[in-house]
Design a protein that fits this description.
The complex is a heterodimer. By secondary structure, chain A is α/β, with parallel strands linked by helices. Chain A is built from 9 helices and 31 strands. Chain A has helices spanning 22-25, 42-51, 66-72, 105-110, 113-117, 137-146, 201-213, 221-231, 251-260, and strands at residues 8-13, 34-35, 39-40, 56-60, 86-90, 123-128, 131-133, 151-157, 167-171, 177-182, 191-200, 236-240, 245-247, 287-289, 294-296, 298-300, 305-306, 309-311, 314-315, 320-321, 326-328, 331-332, 337-338, 343-345, 347-349, 354-355, 360-361, 377-379, 384-385, 390-391, 396-397. Chain A is globular, with a radius of gyration of 23 Å. Chain B contains 9 helices and 30 strands. In chain B, the strands form 6 sheets. In chain B, strands 1, 4, 5, 6, 8, 10, 11, 12 and 13 form a 9-stranded mixed beta sheet that branches. Chain B has a 6-stranded parallel beta sheet with strand order 15-18-21-24-27-30, with no helix packed on it. In chain B, strands 16-19-22-25-28 form a 5-stranded parallel beta sheet, with no helix packed on it. In chain B, a hairpin with a 5-residue loop joins strand 10 (164-168) and strand 11 (174-179). The N and C termini of chain B lie far apart (52 Å). The chains are: A alpha/beta, B alpha/beta.
Chain lengths: 408, 372
């Protein structure tokens, strides 16, 4: 049988639940969560792959995969519908003698060794589907070759006071990794791992087989496989990434990353013709801005009908903001409706949610002298916030909120 | 209607919008902020279950080919059927390929190779969301030989310039073909008809042998004694675009939310070429009212009663009023447009003021730079 050679195969870990985003990930896996008006989080990694010349991508799904599978489809939105290669959804599957869920990030790759071997790659790029960044992986592959590395880990410099939130990589003057520290109290370096790992395939394959044989292992890249390779003296290097990179694993960071798109001082343009971020488009009419609308500092997508006031806000596809409604400093996901007189501020409103007349969602930080009491509010997918109802700041809403009668 | 296919006559161009159709056929005209005129016809067919479409072309079809590509945005990239371009091949080039009938004669082998029983003939200069599925079924039930999709002259929902008027008898059969402006014609043809493929083949051969030039206005009228020709009225919004004035007025009609609901959603979505355009970025000083804006654009100033196409950059302190700005145009800081239609890729330099007249918008030509 002829084997189709691919220099590099990417494996995208998209099976996690995203439990810190639970209100938005009850029905969809985290990589399928809406972002930036007309994107989903996974669009960034898939677009990075195709923009880096990687046309063979395995997407490892496990948790709530339906929406993600529908979204990725044949991969044609990213030019990943190919005769040889292309994008493949890889769910856990049953075998003749045994079957199991993906037990950890490394186990997920282990269970798909045969998929990777089909392409006889030299390198395997392991990615996570929950970061917002634009990265040309081919430069990382070039550095990997130059270093004659077994493993290259992409790192980004983070502020020292934030370093303890990340997996920190310590390396020598040549970039060779000497130590890992997972969320250290007193970080010795500010190089944070971005969750982007490039392996020489024979090294990864051998490591996964060994890891699988070790009953004490959790089968996790960060906790098990990478430390094991380091102990064995593998040539492991850092690759320093410069540019915008954001983990959108929390509701706050998801809101922040959306707001970054409106901020002219943030160095990430989605509009760069040489490095485009692709998404699946819908057949929606252009956005309509009515004679009653006031719209400034915002990112607004096709299919929107804006008749109210919108400022510092991301409106996703098909959102309606009725006359007299006010939406400030918020992220409104697709097809949500903000009715007449409703006020939404510092909030994330999930896809398909309906904010009824005169309801109020969220509060402004300047109204809270004690900043610890303030935070963004989040409305889950497809929920209804009843007429006149009030959702205070920092509230995460999982269920419909009934209307509130007139009496005060 | 599954047992059918369609021919779309992109080769005929009755428009009088010389400036905008110098480099493209009328059906490739950008309209409604993110569409081309032909999108309505193709989407109506697809939404009605027609997945085999031949598009006849004659000249100036580069921009149409660019737009349609493999036709995948209309789900017309099929193993079986799909969209096929029919240029004037295997045809004496001295004979003009400029009428519906001439294109039919040139497409005879395409017609013969199809198996579906019914065929829709469509002129792609229409804006409207039409249920061709019910239209086709009514035709089959009626026992007509040919049925034309029409509007009533006294209806209020038809716009633009119609070419052909129809007179019908008490049984609803067409008795006469007239110019649309003739007041005796109580119905106007939208430019869509349906018949059996076998009949169309016979008519095509007859047209060739008798050296007829026109299908609807010459050959069919002569055959009315032998053919049962019926009509079926379309109820929703419909416009035929032929003049610059039609184009401007229909564009402005789309600013009305009832018209938008009808045109974009009545029976199905209108599909168009997709790009991975970013959402629209509204700046600190943006002030937009009563306008349609397509993705990929950015707004830095005032916009009133205007249509802004994809990837248009409106600089700081610009003022766009009662205007249409086609894709990839750049309006630099401080420039002002009123009653203007820009073609694609137009640049208006910083501080320029370009003012047309109501009813006679000024046209800015493709790829040109204007400073006054």
């Amino acid at each position: 049988m002829m084997r189709h050679y691919k220099e590099c195969v990417a494996m995208l870990l998209a099976g996690g639940q995203g439990s810190r985003l639970e209100v938005l990930t009850r029905k969809v896996a985290k990589p399928a969560v809406h972002f930036g008006g007309k994107y989903r989080i996974i669009d960034f990694t898939l677009s990075n792959c195709i923009n880096s010349g990687i046309d063979t991508v395995g997407v490892l799904t496990q948790y709530q995969p339906l929406e993600l599978i529908k979204y990725v489809g044949s991969g044609r939105a990213w030019d990943l519908d190919r005769y040889y290669g292309g994008v493949h959804i890889l769910p856990p599957y049953a075998r003749a003698k045994s079957s199991s869920w993906y037990r950890g990030t490394a186990n997920a790759i282990y269970q798909n060794l045969e998929f990777i071997d089909e392409f006889s790659p030299e390198y395997v790029l392991v990615l996570s589907g929950d970061h917002i960044y634009k990265m040309d992986y081919s430069k990382m592959i070039a550095a990997h070759k130059k270093n004659k590395a077994d493993v290259t880990i992409s790192v980004i410099n983070v502020p020292r006071d934030e370093a303890s939130r990340f997996g920190i990589v310590i390396s020598d003057g040549e970039g060779r990794i000497t130590e890992f520290e997972e969320k250290p109290k007193n970080p010795r370096s500010t190089c944070a791992s971005m969750g982007v790992y490039l392996f020489s395939w024979p090294v990864l394959k051998a490591a996964l087989l060994r890891d699988e044989a070790d009953d004490t292992s959790e089968n996790d890249f960060g906790n098990n496989v990478l430390p094991m390779l380091l102990r064995d003296g593998a040539r492991m290097f850092t690759y320093e990434f410069e540019g915008y990179w954001k983990d959108v694993g929390t509701l706050d960071s998801l809101w922040d990353a959306n707001m970054d798109l409106i901020n002219p001082s943030i160095p990430m343009s989605l509009d760069d013709p040489t490095f485009r971020i692709f998404m699946k488009s819908q057949a929606l009419p252009p956005q309509y801005i009515s004679s009653d609308a006031v719209i400034t500092n915002s990112f607004v997508s096709e299919g929107c009908e804006v008749m109210g006031t919108v400022d510092f806000t991301v409106l996703s596809t098909g959102v309606t903001v009725e006359k007299g409604a006010v939406v400030l400093d918020s992220v409104i996901m697709p097809d949500a409706v903000i009715e007449e007189g409703a006020v939404v501020q510092y909030a994330i409103v999930g896809s398909g949610a309906h904010i009824k007349k005169n309801a109020r969602v969220g509060g402004r930080p300047e109204d809270y002298p004690d900043r610890d009491k303030w935070g963004i509010s989040v409305i889950g997918y497809d929920l209804t916030i009843g007429e006149g109802a009030v959702v205070p700041c920092r509230k995460v809403v999982f269920e419909d909120v009934p209307e509130r009668s007139e009496e005060k | 209607m599954t047992n059918s296919f369609a021919l779309v006559f992109a080769n005929i161009d009755n428009s009088t919008m010389d400036l905008f159709t110098a480099e493209r056929s009328i059906c490739a005209l950008p309209i409604g902020a993110r569409y081309r005129l032909i999108d309505f016809t193709l989407s109506n067919l697809v939404n009605s279950g027609v997945d085999t479409v031949g598009v006849t072309v004659r000249e100036k079809y580069q921009s149409l080919l660019d737009h349609i590509g493999t036709a995948r945005d209309w789900d017309l990239d099929r193993r079986s059927g799909g969209l096929t371009f029919l240029p004037p091949f295997a045809f004496n080039s001295a004979t003009p390929y400029d009428t519906k009938l001439k294109a039919l004669i040139g497409s005879e082998s395409y017609l013969r190779a199809k198996h579906a029983e019914y065929v829709f003939l469509c002129e792609p200069d229409v804006v409207g969301n039409m249920d061709l599925d019910s239209f086709g079924e009514k035709h089959v039930e009626s026992g007509n030989d040919i049925t034309y999709l029409t509007v009533r002259r006294d209806g209020k929902n038809h716009h633009g310039t119609f070419k052909t008027g129809l007179v019908t008898d008490e049984n609803g059969f067409v008795t006469e073909f007239l110019k649309a402006k003739d007041p005796r014609a109580e119905r106007l043809s939208i430019g869509v008809c349906v018949m059996k493929r076998s009949l169309l083949l016979d008519l095509t051969v007859a047209g060739r042998l008798n050296n007829y030039r026109h299908f609807d206005n010459e050959m069919i009228p002569r055959l009315l004694e032998n053919l049962k020709v019926g009509v079926c009225d379309h109820e929703g919004y419909v416009a035929k675009i032929r003049t610059g004035n039609d184009y401007y007025r229909v564009s402005m009609d789309l600013l009305d939310s009832d018209v938008r609901k009808d045109v974009f959603f009545r029976y199905g979505h209108i599909f168009t070429k997709t790009y991975a355009d970013v959402p629209v970025l509204y700046g600190l000083d943006s002030d937009v009212k009563e306008s349609l804006i397509a993705d990929g654009s950015s707004v830095g100033g005032v916009v009133r009663q205007s249509i802004i196409f994809r990837r248009v950059k409106l600089g700081k302190n610009t003022r766009i009023e009662s205007s249409i700005v086609m894709p990839d145009s750049v309006i630099e800081d401080g420039a002002e447009l009123r009653y203007v239609i820009t073609d694609k890729d137009v640049r208006v330099t910083s501080g320029a003021k370009i003012i047309g007249e109501p009813g006679r918008p000024r046209l800015l030509l493709k790829g040109q730079t204007y400073s006054e």
